[in-house]
Amino acid sequence: MRRTFLLLAILMITLIASIGISGCKSEDKIDSSVISTGTDIPEAVQKENENLDKKSYAGLEDVFNDTKVITPNGKYMMMVFGANGCPYCEKLKKDIKSTPTMKDYIKDHFTAYYINLSYSKMHDFKVGTKDDPKEVKVSTAQLGQMYDVRPTPTIVFSDTDGKTILEFPGYMPEKQFMAMLEFIGSGEWKKAKDQKELNKMLQDFVLKQSNS
């Protein structure tokens, strides 16, 4: 039993350490080179895909918002980048569906979006402050490029202005993922002085909550 616990602890440390490898965006700067006017996608295809991606999160429509407009809406923002045929994306959605406390926590603390990279859709991406708003139209693929999404799922957490707090590439088991949600939702992350300290605090928080 002790050996199993140690192996799980090592696995979790490895998972959390990967946050530093993927890199968290410290700025909400938008690269104009990946912004699209939408003219490269036929209008008929755009209309068809506006609702097609909703099948990706069927049964979780009360958790994930329509991605036509992506904005924090006064809450922390959580963007889950997934794809068709991704087993770990399905595991994550299954965890949320089967865990009422997790489902409610996301609804209470986050404006959440499930962004399916298998579809081509145009999004109104709105972030920034009242004094410095940023609004662009961007395709699904370009949104993935903005956050340098590689594996799926990749989960991006942002503050109420849309500034990235951290980006986590990959799937995390239910209990550990719930701890990550609480780390962001409770504002615990704000105590970190820099990104290195944030990663360490997250690692400690997840391990502590997982063992409680």
Q: What's the short version?
A:
The protein is an alpha/beta fold.
Which helices and strands occur, and which strands form pairs?
Elements: H1 2-22, H2 43-52, E1 64-65, E2 69-70, E3 76-82, H3 87-98, H4 100-109, E4 110-116, E5 122-128, E6 133-139, H5 140-146, E7 154-158, E8 164-169, H6 174-185, H7 195-211
Parallel strand pairs: 1-4, 2-5, 3-4
Antiparallel strand pairs: 3-7, 5-6, 7-8
Helix pairs in contact: 1-7, 4-6, 6-7
Describe the structure using short key phrases.
single chain; 212 residues; alpha/beta; five-stranded mixed β-sheet; three-stranded mixed β-sheet; 7 helices; 8 strands; disordered N terminus
3D structure, described in words:
The longest helix is centred in the first third of the chain and has 21 residues, at 2-22. A hairpin with a 5-residue loop joins strand 7 and strand 8 (164-169). The chain has helices spanning 2-22, 43-52, 87-98, 100-109, 140-146, 174-185, 195-211, and strands spanning 64-65, 69-70, 76-82, 110-116, 122-128, 133-139, 154-158, 164-169. The protein is built from 7 helices and 8 strands. It is α/β, with parallel strands linked by helices. A 5-stranded mixed beta sheet has the order 1-4-3-7-8. The protein has a 3-stranded mixed beta sheet with strand order 2-5-6.
Helix content: 40-55%
The residue ranges in which pLDDT falls below 50 over 5 or more consecutive positions are 1-39
Write down the Rg. Answer: 17 Å
Strand content: 15-25%
Number of helices: 7
Main sheet: which strands, in order across? 1-4-3-7-8
What would you call the shape? globular
- Structural category is alpha/beta
**Distance from first to last alpha carbon:** 16 Å
Rounded mean pLDDT is: 83
Please write the string of helix (H) and strand (E) elements: HHEEEHHEEEHEEHH
DSSP strand count: 8
Largest sheet, in brief, is:
5 strands, mixed
